[in-house]
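Q: How would the structure tokens look for this protein?
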Amino acid sequence: MITVVIPTNRYTCIKKILQDCICSYNGKLFLFEIHDSSCDNRIEILINKIAKTSSATIHYFHYNSDISADFKAIQALRKVNTAFFWLMGDGILVDFTKMENLFIKEKYWQFDLIDVESILRIGYLGQDSKYQPNRLYSCLNPKEYAKKYFSHLTYWGASLIKTAFYQDAFSNEILGKYVKENIPWWIACSLFDVVAKMYQQKQSVTLGVIYADGIGANTEKKDHWWTHDKRYYEYTFVNFNRGIELLSCWYEPTDKKQIIKQFRQDSLVSKRYLIHLRRIGTLNVRSVRKYKFAIYNIPSTYMLMFLYSLIPRCIALIADEAQVCLKPIYIKLKKGVSRVLCKSIQ
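A: Here is the predicted structure in token form.
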């Protein structure tokens, strides 16, 4: 079985997940754990109501509202007792019935770690453009796997993990060094440290990636709350750089630099997102210069951010609004192409 661990404190997000994803699920592969740290009992009341009519197995856990999201998630993972777990953020939606059929068809149990992507990401940044949707591909080169998928594995909801495989992160204090340094990207960092340890000990590790049409975005999830002030620079550059520095020395400096570069291009320092950050004022010349020491390990990133910080905010506002309007059209077109691909494969 697979335990779907959902740490949250957002009522609207979890309501959407429950109504659109969990209520309709009647399979046997997934069981669900909601780890709630909200300051009221609305989520608990909602789950109790849904549990009476849904055939899905839902377990609810409540925490004090002052607990950090990371510590809550780590506590939840320590208690998983199924063969696999899926650490799912409240920013995604999953068709669990479709994913159950897909995982079983592709023999997911043969893998230790699977990067689960939306089919909309096929070919993103020129990556895996020839991969077919709804097929599980294995990767024999773990360093190449880290360069390509480290970025997406930092976002909760992007990985299916064998529980026994991840126990090394707890038993060998791999996870501890990232917790001690307050690294927000602990899940991917610890995963790839476990991979490095097993390869160094000549143990077999099976890594995979799948682009699935059962994965989508939760429209109730808003932008990252921490990107509206200096925490954007602290998390994206200072803390992330430190997390990569702490990675096993089995990864060479060139590997680590490529991981950082890919992470930045993937989302948080993409041109599209820089326009948004300029619009809300987070991106500005003063901050870019202040954090140059952390940004400049990839010189092209610094130059790009500096140039975008010079764009008048009124122009950034217009460009950002245009992006918001065009994105649904782009997604609709790409989904149409993906459906054609899926039908042709079938």
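Strands lie at 2-8, 30-36, 58-62, 84-87, 92-94, 113-118, 136-139, 159-162, 207-212, 215-217.

The chain is about 50% helix and 15% strand.

Upvote if useful.
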